[in-house]
């Protein structure tokens, strides 16, 4: 028994001796936008051994969304670095003793569950051969949409809205938190934003939402009857193929 324990201890020491520290930079980049960083809570990264699922490293991307001019306004030649030392990323430091095939899993944005995207890729890690710079960049498609009004499960008296209607207001940003506004870098004029309306499970039509100020989209819903209402707000950019959705339910009563 003692010999077995000693053998296992020596074996473990040998593994650690021959394992080599290997660094892997992982970044999450919003589709048609910038890197997912601290300003929106980051992306959560998990690096796994693809053979047995063992987690080799995990953590959140931290740092800035990156250089807007470089990322969004400049033509990029081969080998152009889009990141710098301040740009958001997660540096995985992994000890391996042989080439290891890994899964890189990204959940982003980690703090916005209604908009979260799970994206992944795979690659070989070679002991001691660091992958730095931009590193592995995982694209995160979509928009972060939060319906602000009406709010979830709100009860509204019919008499209070039968003349004025109910205001629909949503906050919409890129997946990195980058702002959307008319004539901006992320131009709301290029985006279709609508609210789909249901009452008691039946479709009632749609309302186009306008963008009066940065990140804010709104419209007015006419209400004539009591019932259970559902609002689905979607954003769609035909040029990039980006889409996003949020839903809420509310009640109109006597």
From TrEMBL:
Keywords: Signal. Residues 1-19 form the signal peptide. The lineage of its organism: Bacteria, Pseudomonadati, Bacteroidota, Flavobacteriia, Flavobacteriales. It comes from Flagellimonas zhangzhouensis. This is Uncharacterized protein.
């Amino acid at each position: 028994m003692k010999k077995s324990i000693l053998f296992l201890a020596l074996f473990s020491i040998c593994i650690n001796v021959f394992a080599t520290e290997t660094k892997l930079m992982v970044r999450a980049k919003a589709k048609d936008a910038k890197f997912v960083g601290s300003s929106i809570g980051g992306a959560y990264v998990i690096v796994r051994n693809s053979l047995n699922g063992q987690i080799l490293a995990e953590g959140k991307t931290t740092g800035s969304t990156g250089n807007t001019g470089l990322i969004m306004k400049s033509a990029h030649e081969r080998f152009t670095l889009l990141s710098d030392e301040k740009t958001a990323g997660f540096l995985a430091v992994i000890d391996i003793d042989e080439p290891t095939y890994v899964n890189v899993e990204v959940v982003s944005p980690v703090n916005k569950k209604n908009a979260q995207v799970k994206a992944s890729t795979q690659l070989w890690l070679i002991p001691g051969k660091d992958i730095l710079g931009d590193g592995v960049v995982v694209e995160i498609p979509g928009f972060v949409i939060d319906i602000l009004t009406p709010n979830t499960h709100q009860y509204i008296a019919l008499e209070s809205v039968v003349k004025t209607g109910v205001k629909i207001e949503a906050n919409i940003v890129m997946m990195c938190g980058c702002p959307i506004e008319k004539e901006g870098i992320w131009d709301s004029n290029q985006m279709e934003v609508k609210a789909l309306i249901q009452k008691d499970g039946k479709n009632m039509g749609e309302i186009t939402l306008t963008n009066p100020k940065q990140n804010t989209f709104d419209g007015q819903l006419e209400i004539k009857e009591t019932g259970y209402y559902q609002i689905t707000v979607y954003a769609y950019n035909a040029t990039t193929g980006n889409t996003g959705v949020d839903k809420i339910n509310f009640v109109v009563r006597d």
